[in-house]
Amino acid sequence: MMRPTSLRKAFTMPVLAALVLLLITSKPVHAGVWVTELNSSKSSDINQPCCIAYASSQGQILASGWTNGNAGSTTHTNSGGTDAFVLILNETDGAVLNSIVFGTSANEKVHNLYYNSKTDQIVVFGTTAGTFSGQSSSGGTDLFISVIERSSLAIATFQYGSSGDDEPVDLLFYQDNMYLGIGNGRFERSKTQPTNALVLFQVTTSKSLDKKEVKVMNNQTNGYYGAYAAAPKDTQARFGIAYELSTVPNGRQAYNVTEYNSLFVAQTTNALTKSLGPNSIPISPTALQYSASTTAWWYVASEPGYSNKYYPPSWPGVTNGTSFLIGKVGPDEPLRIPPVIPYDLWFPSALQLDNRRYQYFGFRSFLGTGLTNPNLILNRVGWQYGPFSFHDAQLGAIETFVAGDNWFLQGALPIESNGNFFIYAGRWDQEQNVYNCMGTEMRRNFSFAVGLNDRVIGFGDVGSQCPEYTIDAVKGSGSFYYAIGSSTGSLTGQDRNNAGLTNTTVILGISYNNSGPAATRFSFPRIFETCELPCESIPPPTPSPSPTPSPTKTSTKTPTKTPTKTPTKTPNKTPTKTPTKSSSGLPTTSFVPTVTVSQNPSVLPSSVPPTEKGSISVTP
What we know:
The protein is mainly β. It is built from one helix and 39 strands. It has one helix at 17-25, and strands at residues 34-38, 47-55, 60-67, 83-90, 96-102, 108-116, 121-128, 142-149, 155-160, 167-174, 178-185, 197-204, 209-216, 223-232, 238-247, 253-261, 266-271, 273-276, 279-282, 284-291, 296-303, 322-330, 333-336, 341-343, 348-354, 359-369, 377-387, 394-397, 405-412, 420-429, 445-452, 455-462, 468-475, 480-487, 504-512, 522-525, 595-598, 601-602, 617-618. The strands form nine sheets. Strands 1, 33, 34, 35, 36, 37 and 38 form a seven-stranded antiparallel β-sheet that branches. The protein starts with 16 loop residues before the first helix and ends with a strand.
């Protein structure tokens, strides 16, 4: 659903098969603004997005995820279950240049994607329930690192894990030649028990296994170890991990940052705690970065901490909520935390350091009120920023001055040279419009914002009447950004045949203009949307040419706050589709190309949760 200004548009635009086919080969009006979507024509299709990267020297966009199909590839076939995929796209028009699909006879999932411009290598990090050729299974679900030569598409895969099911945490590139996979393992444990081990293995850029190790971190019967964030230590042969140690479901929880060398030997450990009168409360980290200019590890965190799914989030004296915390720890200084900012329910999602201006930015979602209606509680996106000295911390939040406007943060990109930051999120109206189905989180859109210091200078969203989730984004050349996400509908006119309930992968090219009103600065591709999620709207009342003082029982009633729902929330086997119309008034057809690309730019929330995604951490 396109939104050229702050006002919601209520119509949709499917397209004829011939027009969709034309869009695959036509040139965009503005290069770099396009939408590409994986084919998905039945409810059993799995096309889950993960990550996106930019190969700037090649003028290409790299997108990854996992699929039970072939992701449009004509040279690779699915090996069974869900396989990993990597799409190589032209950054100008979104055309798919290559589609790589690889895996085992069991299920693979992708967690990280990285492009090494020095070696021209694409690196994929994820999990496998099977065994790759030339590798051996450690037991349960293992981690894998695949190094792909972009020019030849040759793939070298390395597999490792604990004796139980492993969960990916992050992929780091450090020491200028090493890809490091980090995961939480279950040493001699079933998948229903908490993770208790740290899994580390690293592969060189010359595609050889350098080192691997499973460290049992908590061997107690109900002991839990969970790594939450990791980062390289600048250009040094070291890395840091922020993690929790606890006994579940009600033992003491401790949070630390430990620095390791390239031999996986711990060098320093700092505890993360917040003083609360005579007591101290452990704080749960959610992002980690190292700053050479401050020689310290920076983090964003929350208390009492909601990261451990095995542990009820409750602390004495702490009510239903979290506090937003930004701090730093280093070998020569204690834990430092600026003023605590209380916000309900959501923990912080992103940390970015501006080393040019010596500033930190911590981004989060929270529940709060907007300026248009102080009595209405909304999902909002905000941030705290300030100098590395922690003096004069400032706050900012997305404020669109649209009543009922909800935003939920998915992530933020590194601070740009001009000081701008880029946020990717989800956006939806608070209540459903009974005439066009839009509104509530079930109809959220791909959403983006650009900010500077404490204010938003541009924002916008695009999507179908079905829910969309923005999973990952990357800065391209000039004013262009690229994003990957999921939709249970279609932005290219596909007939999904899924009742609006299953995802497919969508890749977007968008541009940002640094002038004009904030609500019009983004340029989005023109979409041709379809959505099969049943609509809860009712038709508007039929106007009467003359008033009727005493309406009969069959008269058309003005809709109330609880209108009759047509159809019902529970879809049947042939659900009524959300009404759609194209800009030309043409009906939707059943033609679905393997990979659909729309390249005509113009300018405009959810039932399926976002896929787990990890953004590669790289030495600056």
